[in-house]
Structures are given as C-alpha cells and as structure tokens.
Write a structure and sequence with these properties.
single chain, mainly beta, seven-stranded antiparallel β-sheet, 49% strand, globular
Length: 71
C-alpha cells in the first residue's frame, strides 16, 4: 500500500509518503508514525481517505483505518 499525508494548506501536494500493510481484515493498516504525523489528511492509494490514526512516536509506528469494504 502507498500512503500519502496531506496538509490542508496545499491539499494537492503530499507532505510525506510511505508504505504500509494491512494488519486486520477490518481495515487497520500499519505504517510509520513519521509518515502521518502533523498531517491533516491521510490518503491510501486504492483505498481513499484513512482516519483514526493511532500514533506511537517512540517506536515510529502508526495504525490508520480505511474502509475495508472497498476492493
């Protein structure tokens, strides 16, 4: 999966990008915290907008949630 973090000031430009992988079948993805910290919107290629970020800055890990119903 390709993950892009977007700042609302320049919504068309990603401020960071990275990779991640699915950890549950209900839509939770694992990525690095530095990819999604300080962003206003998280987009996942092929899955749309992700939400509900759970960030562990100490270990540089983040969980994000996407709609698992999308193919």
């Amino acid at each position: 999966l390709v993950i892009s973090a977007v700042n609302a000031a320049r919504a068309e430009d990603a401020i960071s990008s990275g990779t991640g992988f699915a950890v549950t079948d209900d839509g939770w993805l694992l990525t690095n915290a530095h990819v999604v910290e300080s962003c206003d919107r998280i987009e996942v290629a092929g899955k749309g907008i992700a939400g509900d970020p759970r960030i562990d800055s100490t270990n540089d890990l983040a969980l994000i949630k996407v709609d698992a119903r999308q193919p």
